[in-house]
Amino acid sequence: MAATMCLRSVPSLSYKALSRPSTSTSSGASRRAFVRCDAGSNGKNPLGGLKESVDRATKTPITKEDILQNQEQNQSEKQSVFGAVPNSGSFYPRPEIERRPETGSKSFGSVFAFDGAAPETINGRLAMMGFVWALCAEKLTGLTVMEQIFNPATSGLVFFVAAVQLFTYASMVPIMNGESTDARSWGPFNARAERWNGRLAMIGFAALLIDEMIRQGPLIH
């Protein structure tokens, strides 16, 4: 069953790669093929082993030793954005080993602190989704962002609240399991790219709202 799935989806790969997966990750195509093969290795469940296969292809565990080494070598970790050396036990800024979900506290106060793992991750993802969604909806409806949300003729507020809940929950699951976004990467998709895209989206979304308040109309007609 697994071999059939792989042959249909990735016909150009050799039989050797399909029948005996290697641990090498030099080829992105091979990694994708192995995920599909391993996920269907359970004859009773086509999705059996999916999580383990995805973890092998995308996850790089971050250990306490890695964090301590980065604290000693990374200049940005020696001095915070506030110009002070991070202090242990403070709410913020804190040393990396305390704010990381892999080694630090996973309490609500710690995770959602100013330098915690959750705020920027969740805000960035919501901003990326909201910015694209707002522009597409403006093109289709001719309504501004505020009109999309609060206009009685639309269901924008309902969808917005639902999307916030869904993205927040999905982002919190790995964090509460002791996994930061830096532990995952797949080709060009990595934590650093996500952070910068999220920051740009937050700036873009705020600029879109300000522009529409000045124009008194949508950016895209």
TrEMBL record:
Cellular component annotations (GO), alphabetically ordered: chloroplast; membrane
Pfam families: Chloroa_b-bind
Disordered as annotated region, ranges: 66-101
Topology of this chain in the membrane: Multi-pass membrane protein
Alphabetical list of InterPro entries matching this protein: Chloroa_b-bind
Stretches with biased composition (Low complexity): 69-80
Keywords attached to this entry: Chloroplast, Membrane, Plastid, Transmembrane, Transmembrane helix
Presence of keyword Repeat: no
The keyword NAD is assigned to this record: no
SUPFAM superfamilies, per database record: Chlorophyll a-b binding protein
Localization terms from the record: Membrane; Plastid, Chloroplast
Family, per entry: Belongs to the ELIP/psbS family.
Protein name, per record: Uncharacterized protein
Species annotation: Marchantia polymorpha subsp. ruderalis
